[in-house]
Design goal:
Layout: H1 19-32, H2 36-58, H3 61-81, H4 91-107, H5 125-130, H6 132-135
Helix pairs in contact: 1-2, 2-3, 3-4
């Protein structure tokens, strides 16, 4: 039986991150003039809040998850091409195509993708974009 915790209590946890992710978070924390711990907490809070809001705005968590995935691919492609979607509208269909490859890959591993997110096997999106021929 789980022990009830005081909502005001703080828990100390240990995270295992690959060095590039830790370095990126540290750089973001420095730019935002906060500690690495504060940066991670703010990002986790933002992620959960956006997911909650997405369910309200889109009327469905599933639709929000799909839309957020396309947005993530757009940001990745923008970084790789060093262009914004407003400068190069071809990024959008490319992001949709990458999203389709991603969904096809993970949906072959589980039957209901968004209704049970714990079962989704982690797929490296950036690696997917670099080697889409290996996935399809």
């Amino acid at each position: 039986m789980a022990i009830a915790r005081d909502a005001a209590a703080k828990a100390q946890i240990k995270l295992r991150l690959k060095e590039p992710l830790r370095a990126r978070l540290a750089a973001e924390a420095k730019q935002n003039e906060v500690s690495l711990n504060t940066e991670i907490i703010q990002r986790l809070h933002t992620s959960l809040t956006e997911e909650d809001m997405g369910g309200v705005v889109f009327g469905s968590r599933d639709i929000f998850v799909c839309t957020a995935l396309v947005a993530r691919f757009i940001r990745i492609i923008e970084r790789k091409r060093n262009k914004k979607i407003s400068e190069d509208p071809s990024l959008f269909p490319d992001a949709l195509a990458a999203s389709a490859i991603y969904w096809k890959t993970i949906s072959s591993k589980i039957s209901e993708i968004t209704s049970d997110p714990e079962k989704i096997e982690k797929v490296d999106i950036e690696e997917l974009l670099e080697n889409p021929e290996e996935i399809s």
